[in-house]
Backbone:
């Protein structure tokens, strides 16, 4: 079976700072991978490479068997034009730490925007499925609210619905609950748990150890631009082998 | 104390304006609706509108070009802005007026190759076209910087979210970034329009019959210089006031989706008076 995400020796530098020092991992279809690690470990940079929001300096990254952001000619990679990268991104949903809802649009407008303008879905169909998505994240009565009228948790649930509206085969979550007040974290995790249950392939950068343990199929611990340890969350997050993982867990738990 | 001083000065000014016969208010009233003044006013408004349409369209284009990842595209926008901001607009007006001396004919075709059609520039570039082009092309350089500031004011996360949904660069710009940049772009654009209304009077130099030139033509004949300058000033004031009110409603429209509606109301009064130090007076 083709892995949904396959990374092979992914390197990323910002100027002279090497942020990713050769990341290799695989996510199988239907799996939920949780990436944990201290801040500055490169986990956010890595997840942003998966939909080519960041260029990579070395290595290869495939989503569903297709190189992301590049085409290979011989041994060298050539960056794909805007059009081709955009096309690839339609299949990869992303949820951001700071929600990034379009501020001048209502919740419903946020969700229908990409289906209407990118996929050119008929308006009545796009609106119908957007309402259905907003109902699924528990916000059907907030369709006409602007982002500033919503709580952080509600905004993040709209953002999830917006990503799902493109019908992606992979969902990326970049610290989706880190900007939320503690009492609002649960409602977002609940929506994510529901997604995992219906078999969505997910890569989640998170600090929520409990979520990683209960919902994750694979846990990855990153530090200083490398994967320190990965495997069954029950093992990695309960009885880690590596000293660095142990140290991290003792600080956050 | 300061209030008393100001009240006294206003009173003194009002008495002076009412009693000094040199103001000639009767003549002013008579010429306010003079047909040639009204024709001049119409031309001023047309010129301002046309120049601003060119300026805004060009400004958006140049701003997007300056932010392009392609260095050639970004660089040519920079050169344009450098040139048109770096030379006086009056010189540009004169230059466009005399462009026919530089290029008597324009041929459409391939340089040094076959020509498809030829245009007589002297006939094409009337003073109105010269004035519109000069003011519009000059305005484009200023609008580019205003639009660019607006684009940069929109959070990077908005662009990333749009890209992550598969939206392409120009679609993202048009649907996501520019509408949100409008809140920052509109107030200075309103000021630019008001400024353009007044700057357009420079076309009097190329004998284009705008509001000021029409007033000049009359006082050259009647020697009622002060009265006709007052007539022109009053019309300019009326137009700028109407523009300020229009700006308020446009700003309110683009404040959609923000808590800033009350802020737009405050800005309106600041712009109306255009005298920020006096803002405290209203409380």
Residues:
């Amino acid at each position: 079976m083709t892995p949904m995400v396959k990374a092979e020796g992914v390197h990323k530098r910002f100027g002279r700072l090497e942020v990713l020092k050769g990341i290799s991992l695989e996510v199988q279809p239907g799996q939920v991978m949780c990436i944990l690690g201290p801040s500055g470990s490169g986990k956010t940079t890595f997840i942003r490479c998966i939909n080519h929001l960041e260029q990579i300096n070395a290595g290869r990254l495939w989503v569903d068997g297709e190189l992301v952001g590049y085409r290979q000619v011989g041994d060298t990679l050539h960056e794909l034009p805007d059009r081709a990268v955009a096309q690839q991104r339609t299949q990869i949903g992303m949820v951001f730490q700071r929600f990034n809802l379009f501020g001048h649009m209502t919740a419903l407008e946020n969700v229908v925007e990409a289906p209407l303008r990118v996929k050119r879905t008929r308006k009545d169909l796009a609106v119908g499925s957007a309402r259905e998505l907003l109902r699924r994240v528990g916000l059907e009565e907030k369709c006409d609210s602007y982002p500033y009228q919503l709580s952080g948790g509600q905004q993040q649930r709209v953002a999830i619905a917006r990503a799902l509206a493109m019908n992606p085969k992979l969902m990326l979550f970049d610290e989706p609950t880190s900007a939320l007040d503690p009492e609002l974290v649960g409602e977002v995790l609940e929506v994510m748990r529901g997604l995992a249950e219906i078999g969505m392939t997910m890569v989640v950068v998170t600090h929520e150890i409990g979520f990683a343990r209960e919902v994750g199929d694979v846990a990855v611990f990153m530090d200083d631009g490398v994967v320190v340890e990965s495997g069954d969350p029950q093992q990695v997050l309960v009885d880690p082998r590596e000293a660095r993982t142990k140290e991290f867990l003792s600080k956050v738990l | 104390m300061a209030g008393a001083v100001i009240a006294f000065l206003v009173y003194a000014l009002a008495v002076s304006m009412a009693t000094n016969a040199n103001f000639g208010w009767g003549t002013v009233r008579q010429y306010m609706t003079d047909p040639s003044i009204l024709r001049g006013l119409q031309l001023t408004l047309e010129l301002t509108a046309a120049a601003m349409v060119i300026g805004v369209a060009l400004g958006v284009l140049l701003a997007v070009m300056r932010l392009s990842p392609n260095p050639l595209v970004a660089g040519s926008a920079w050169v344009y802005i450098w040139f048109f901001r770096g030379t006086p607009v009056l010189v540009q007006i004169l230059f466009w007026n005399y462009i026919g001396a530089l290029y008597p004919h324009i041929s459409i075709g391939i340089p040094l190759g076959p020509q498809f059609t030829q245009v007589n520039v002297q006939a094409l570039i009337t003073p109105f076209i010269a004035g519109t082009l000069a003011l519009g092309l000059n305005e484009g350089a200023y609008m580019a910087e205003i639009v660019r500031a607006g684009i940069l004011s929109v959070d990077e996360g908005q662009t990333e979210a749009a890209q992550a949904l598969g939206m392409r660069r120009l679609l993202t710009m048009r649907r996501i970034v520019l509408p949100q940049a409008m809140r920052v772009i509109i107030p200075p654009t309103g000021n630019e329009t008001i400024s353009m209304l007044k700057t357009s009077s420079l076309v009097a130099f190329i004998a284009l019959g705008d509001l000021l030139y029409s007033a000049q033509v009359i006082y050259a004949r009647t020697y009622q210089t002060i009265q006709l300058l007052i007539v022109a000033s009053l019309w300019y004031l009326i137009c700028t006031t109407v523009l300020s009110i229009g700006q308020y409603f446009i700003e309110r429209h683009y404040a959609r989706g923000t808590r800033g509606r009350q802020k737009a109301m405050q800005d309106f009064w600041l712009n109306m008076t255009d005298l920020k130090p006096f803002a405290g007076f209203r409380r």
Observations:
- Strands of chain B lie at 105-109, 115-120.
- The interface with chain A takes residues 155, 157-158, 160-169, 171, 175-176, 179-180, 256-259 of chain B (CB under 8 Å).
- Residues 46-210 of chain B form a domain with the MetI-like fold fold (CATH 1.10.3720.10).
- Chain B has 13 helices and two strands.
